[in-house]
Amino acid sequence: MKNRRSLPRSRPPRRRVEEEDESFWMSYGDLFAGLLLIFALMLLAALYSYQSGLDGVREILLVRQQIVEELQEEFSVEEGRMVEVTEAGAIRFGDQVLFAQDSYEIRPAGREQLEAFARQYLSVIFDDPRFSDRVRRIIIEGHTNDDGTYFYNLRLSQERAYAVMSTILEAADERHRDLLVDRMTAVGRSFADLRYLDAERTVVDREGSRRIEIRFDLDDERVMRQLLETLPSGEGPVVSGAESGAQ
Fold first, then answer.
1. pTM of the predicted model, to two decimals?
2. CATH number for the segment(s) 48-229
3. DSSP-based three-state secondary structure for 237
4. Distance between CA 126 and CA 51 in Å, rounded?
């Protein structure tokens, strides 16, 4: 029996193995570079969105300030004037001018003043496109003092707010009325937001608590939501819509 000579195993050339290793590492490096590029682009997009959101917030704040200044100039404090403009741009009426005790029917003299006010107010809000494009809602709030039950005053304050809203709609011209239909609402607050005569908030200002307030809301909620969406999950406050409702 003849001895069989075993054949040596074939080995790939060393150079070929090195080329394959080099090809593998080059592919891995290209992949890593591509991922870094994608990450950089995503970061730039997030920074751009965040900056755009900040610009939107600044614009909202500027528009609000400009509206407040226009209202304060239009309704400057004069002796005997029934309108007060707050620093936030809310309009306050002492409702003694508008309503008798326990009534939600507007007095004739109060109606005349309210109609004149409505035309001036709507002109400021809607005649300037910088403002009209940003004003999302106009809220009329009825407030009472704490004389009587909460629910009695809630109904009274709601009826008074409705009466003021109806008068403003009647006084508005056709163009302003069309804008108001989608943006104006009336809310009764009862005595949920009393005013006080002392810093300790122990003595209720019953006359001052009886009032009608008219305020505007801008589309800042939408801008804030867009800004918060650019933040990492879990950062930033939760933004939700809220609506605010004398003897």
1. 0.69
2. 3.30.1330.60
3. coil
4. 29
